[in-house]
Amino acid sequence: PNFSVADIRKTFLDFFASKAHTVVASSPLVPGNDPTLMFTNSGMVQFKDVFLGTDKRPYVRAASVQACLRAGGKHNDLENVGYTARHHTFFEMLGNWSFGDYFKRESLVWGWELLTEVYKLPKEKLWATVYIDDDEAYDIWTKVIGLPADRVVRIGDNKGAKYASDNFWMMADTGPCGPCSEIFYDHGPHIPGGPPGSPEQDGDRYIEIWNHVFMQFDMQADGSVKNLPAPCVDTGMGLERLAAILQHVHSNYEIDIFDALIKAAARETGVTDLENKSLRVIADHIRATSFLVSDGVIPSNEGRGYVQRRIIRRAIRHGYKLGKKTPFFHKLVPDLVALMGEAYPNLKANENKIIDTLKAEEERFFETLENGMEILDAALAGGQKELPGDVAFKLHDTYGFPLDLSADVCRERDVTVDEAGFNAAMDKQKAAGRAAGKFKMDRALEYAGIGNAFTGYEKLEESARVV
Ligand code: ATP
Ligand code: MG
Ligand code: MG
Ligand code: MG
């Protein structure tokens, strides 16, 4: 079968509804119940307190398709966009939960059933990982499900600390945590990358599609663990990664939604090579920035608004690279609304606001972009391998280039940025006391894409890191 993204969403929710799960709507990208968390970066965010036992719901099983953003703080995939086949800033996470109800066996068995019998993924291409000492999950995979043992990989504390592995998920230094089991799909030997747990894993051949977290402990500050009120399940599967498999393509950027968005970006930029990396970046970023506006985040110089500004400006710069010198990005909004407005009515309801917001930001940035690019080019004209910090600072201060945008340009040219020099220039200007009101944003926070109202993010982003 050739599943569209809409089919995949519906099939997932129908499957878990048939297993007595309550279907819950996606919550906003700005978490309503947690002022300390920058963005919703996984499906569990709206259920955080339920795991801890401080909130109760009228159901013990839930499923959702959650809009997620990983573009700020520790859980940040912004730099991966355009470079890997599997990362977006904005993506949709399919998830199911048990709040003290079923546990490992149902979670994995149903997961396998859904993947192989409903979506009909070829069993021989699937791999699983379990936490190193989780014999229970290992036995479920090998004995109950019957996955050959050479495709079930134990991944543990290879980084030294007992709970530092990829397969032991912790909400934070303290709080809910537990071992997890992840499902990978082998896209084939023509793609570079090694199986899970191998040194080459970080390629795009074996792509992680679904994480099942077995929440059972509450980590204490001294590193000891207490049992949660009840063992819980928290799973998350990337919709776009599953779609790539079901639509017989390798990259997330080749699935139906992205195909249409990339064509729209090509139309607006006049580019004909649809594999152009900048088109992928623009297609990714129109989703992130449009959904952010629809959830109330407008560009600004601090906090969430500064992340929004950085994403928009990165997209504009990629358009500039393709030859655009005037606003184009906002013209993709109707294409996006046509593709996703039905699944996300709030996006459709805010269409005009999104267009106006993006257009205003484009008009503003296009005023300085070209001159800034000339300065950047001039600074590297002698074949330098590093962009001087004072130039990066000038670009930031006078031309509206966030540091990560200059770094993005430099990376394309194999050039690094002198961040220490940038910081020194920033400090110098601050100390000089000029433009006092202009530096609302602390530079350390700027790196993290975080405004000073949210100093706790770095930690809390990590804490909300799911699955
Ligand atoms: P990866 O190792 O590939 O970066 P992850 O381990 O960070 O993924 P999880 O935090 O376990 O991902 O999230 C659960 C699922 O969400 C992943 O298995 C994947 O399918 C999906 N996912 C995670 N990050 C992204 C992203 N940036 N873009 C698209 N899908 C994602
Ligand atoms: Mg990741
Ligand atoms: Mg991973
Ligand atoms: Mg994972």
TrEMBL record:
Binds 1 zinc ion per subunit. Residues 3-467 form the Alanyl-transfer RNA synthetases family profile domain. GO terms for biological process: alanyl-tRNA aminoacylation; negative regulation of DNA-templated transcription. It catalyses: tRNA(Ala) + L-alanine + ATP = L-alanyl-tRNA(Ala) + AMP + diphosphate. Keywords: Aminoacyl-tRNA synthetase, ATP-binding, Coiled coil, Cytoplasm, Ligase, Metal-binding, Nucleotide-binding, Protein biosynthesis, RNA-binding, tRNA-binding, Zinc. It comes from the Bacteria. This is Alanine--tRNA ligase. It comes from Caenimonas koreensis DSM 17982.
